[in-house]
Amino acid sequence: MKPVVFYYADGSDVREGDNIRTGNVPKAVVLKVIQPNSQDAKDYSCEQGGILIEEYWENGPGLVVETRPDGMFWEDYELISRKQIP
């Protein structure tokens, strides 16, 4: 099965390792792109797929799973930089 691609509001595709800004914090990272109906989707209770984000708060990191049925994420998720591949 072809993987589902999720997108930021600017049209860029979401990738694991992306450094992003969220509506909550200025620094976060995409830990996982969750494919629909996968074991990860079951584990994170998002059968339609989504993204696992680690947000960096003053008192420590926090995790959030974001799902969007249309594959597009709110404009308050902004791509800052891609993970550097050595």
Structure description:
By secondary structure, this protein is mostly beta strands. The protein has one domain (19-81). Helix content is 6%, strand content 34%. It contains one helix and five strands, in the order ββαβββ. The chain has one helix at residues 39-43; strands at residues 19-21, 28-34, 50-57, 60-66, 78-81. It has a five-stranded antiparallel β-sheet, with no helix packed on it.
How are the strands of the biggest sheet laid out side by side?
4-3-2-1-5
Order of helices and strands: EEHEEE
Tally of structural domains? 1
Number of strands: 5
Low-confidence stretches: none
The description of the largest β-sheet is:
5 strands, antiparallel
Q: Would you summarize the structure shown here?
A:
By secondary structure, the chain is mainly beta. Helix content is 6%, strand content 34%. The chain has one domain.
